[in-house]
Design brief:
The protein is mostly beta strands. It has one domain: Maltoporin, Chain A.
Length: about 625
């Protein structure tokens, strides 16, 4: 780690270990914050509402209002605060993620993304990154499960699971702009129509100079919206996002990029008794993706996808046995690929290799069961298993077991064993017709410790992840096969500290040692694109009652794949928020991203090698919000 990165960690630990000097009002504020956090519940891990510190495995929760005070502008920017997650951009400025050091060049690092509990991307497309560019103005909170989540969420809850929960309360209009030519707007409106509660959150952004690496230039349009309607146990939702980049000039030029996803869904909850409840849900999802043709030193590639899918499901929750809570679920998925093409491996001067798929169907039938058992007071066992029947791949049984122990009031210990699975994307599955591909499998063991007291929270996790039957190029069939594997082990630390009544620190530090054999020789090697060390520091300081300063500092350690002296980097963002500026209902936010003008090299790893994308983007921005 660079001296700057170590300095940040040392400063954090010094503040954390300093003697408490709170005044009485500061102690009261810290205690109130503790109580609010203890009441914070999430259903993402077990589909039953539990406090986040007592769910199986580790879940990170980021609140939208706190992210706003820190100057965070998109979901992707916020995820740098998740331990073990590295945020990157590709050559078109698309956001990608690497979880626990094991990269995937598609589906945001093989992380399932839910928008208000509904998948927003197809698991077989190979892309769901545009959802990460949703503005923070949409966000009520973000929930991120580290490690496999397939027992309850199935395919592609493989390396992690992100649920983006949007605002359902409030009314405001927001306009924004930056010195890179971007102009944006946002509308949030909610209210009551008789017994029905409704909310609409709509956003748009246009830029004539999207942030791209090097000298590349292009225009950009983004659109997103969430409409929600609820009455008692019935909830209806329509939501979608779109990103459109025009023709890209520079080196290399490209035809452009389009990514559109929209979905409608509904769910109904009914309580038969205090011990028995039922939830039924349905969803229609439509996806369009066009990547043009990308030229790199390793060759050219391009992807087109048009298709839709439908999901139906039901969950029965029963707590009729003493100290046990059972969850039974069943799901049906029907996916259509109307047209999909994939162009890959065309070196200059050689004919292209183009895969074309039309009118293909995928059906998946799933069932799962989970039992949460209170063995004794302060000791809980969770057991779960999922059975999937994918008509293209086969059947699979996926298990999970977790033990949560609270030996004392401020201490929690967790141990978990969980598996996740990933089915082939369309371009992996159909490159060789009738290819005998199996699921990729992620087997992860975790041991976690949580210590909490007023004003302070420490979370520490040790993990070991083994990925087997990974899909990679198999020269024997001139296509893809389950011929590769990967192994990652590491430690993740989180510290949240209320230094004073008006100053809050949140920091993470991650060490990762990751290896795989995804290379031409199938030799196991360290993953050269992944750093051993990642850290993040976020500071929120309420200088005055209506003025808040924010700082975020993301450090990425050395990466062996970077050869130009930019293997490590530090990105520092500064912001200020003025509530009630000039008028009680008017808020002003302004900031500078990458205030040090750090040259940042992002990496994209493919079977043909590692491509480097140098970004150097110091951006000043401003936002005005009128609350009505």
């Amino acid at each position: 780690m660079s001296s700057l990165g170590w300095a940040g960690v040392c400063a954090l630990l010094a503040l954390a270990s300093a003697p408490a000097t709170y005044a009485q009002d500061e102690e009261d504020a810290a205690y109130a914050e503790l109580m609010a956090t203890l009441e914070q519940e999430t259903a993402i891990v077990t589909k039953t509402r539990m406090n986040r510190d007592f769910v199986p495995g580790m879940v990170s929760v980021l609140e939208g209002e706190e992210l706003t005070e820190l100057g965070v502008r998109t979901v992707w920017e916020a995820l740098a605060q998740i331990p073990g997650v590295q945020t990157e951009l590709d050559g078109r400025g698309n956001p990608t993620l690497t979880a626990r050091g094991i990269y995937f060049p598609f589906n945001s690092g093989s992380i399932q993304i839910l928008l208000n509990g509904l998948p927003i991307g197809r698991e077989d497309i190979g892309s769901n990154g545009a959802a990460l560019l949703l503005p923070i103005a949409h966000v009520e909170r973000l929930e991120f499960v580290r490690g496999p989540g397939s027992v309850l969420y199935g395919d592609y809850a493989f390396q992690g699971l992100l649920n983006i929960l949007t605002r359902q309360e409030g009314r405001f209009v927001e306009v924004s702009g930056d010195n890179h030519g971007a102009l944006g707007g946002h509308l949030l409106h909610s209210g009551q129509l008789g017994d029905w509660h409704y909310s609409a959150s709509l956003a748009a952004l246009d830029s004539d100079d999207v942030v791209l690496p090097g000298t590349r230039q292009a225009s950009e349009e983004r659109r997103s919206g969430v409409l929600q309607l609820g009455n008692g146990g019935l909830k209806l939702i329509a939501q979608g996002e779109m990103r459109d980049i025009g023709r890209i000039s520079g080196n290399p030029p490209e035809a452009g990029y389009e990514d559109t996803s929209w979905t409608i869904g509904g769910q109904y909850d009914h309580d038969f008794s205090e011990q028995l409840s039922l939830r039924v849900h349905a969803q229609h999802l439509d996806n369009h993706l066009y990547t043009g043709e990308v030229t790199t030193p390793q060759g050219s590639a391009g992807l087109v996808f048009e298709g839709d899918e439908q999901r139906l499901g039901a969950e029965l929750n029963w707590s009729g046995w003493a100290r046990q809570q059972w969850l039974f679920g069943a799901e049906y998925l029907h996916g259509n690929i109307d047209l999909a093409t994939f162009r890959v491996g065309a070196l200059p001067g050689q004919p292209p290799n183009v895969l074309r798929v039309e009118d293909e169907r995928r059906q998946v039938i799933s069932a799962f069961v989970q039992d949460q058992i209170e063995l004794r007071e302060g000791l809980d066992l969770t057991l779960g298993a999922r059975w999937d029947d994918n008509q293209d791949v086969g059947t699979r049984l996926t298990p999970r077991a977790s033990l949560v122990w609270q030996p004392a009031e401020n201490h929690v210990l967790k141990a978990q064993y969980a598996q996740g699975h990933r089915a082939p994307t369309f371009f992996e599955l159909y490159t060789v017709r009738d290819a005998d591909l199996d699921f990729e499998v992620n087997t992860t063991s975790e041991l976690s410790y949580i210590h909490r007291r007023p004003g302070q929270v420490l979370r520490a996790t040790l993990y070991d992840s083994r990925l087997d039957d990974m899909i990679y190029i198999d020269p024997r069939v001139r296509g893809f096969g389950n011929v590769a594997s990967a192994h990652s082990r590491g430690a993740e630390l989180e510290w949240s500290q209320r230094v004073a009544e008006r100053i809050k620190l949140d920091a993470t530090l991650t060490y990762t040692d990751a290896q795989d054999n995804r290379n031409a020789q199938l030799d196991t090697r360290s993953i050269a694109a992944s750093p051993h060390w990642i850290s993040d520091l976020a500071v929120s300081w309420r200088v005055l009652d209506r003025t808040t300063l924010g700082l975020t500092w993301n450090h990425v350690g050395e990466r062996a794949a970077v050869t130009a002296g930019d293997g490590a980097y530090d990105r520092v963002d500064l912001s200020a928020q003025f509530s009630g500026w000039l008028h009680p209902n008017l808020d002003l936010r302004a900031g500078v991203d990458n205030v040090l003008d750090e040259r940042t090299v992002y990496l994209l790893t493919s079977p043909n090698g590692v491509t480097q994308f140098p970004y150097q983007d110091r951006i000043g921005w401003i936002e005005l919000r009128w609350r009505y």
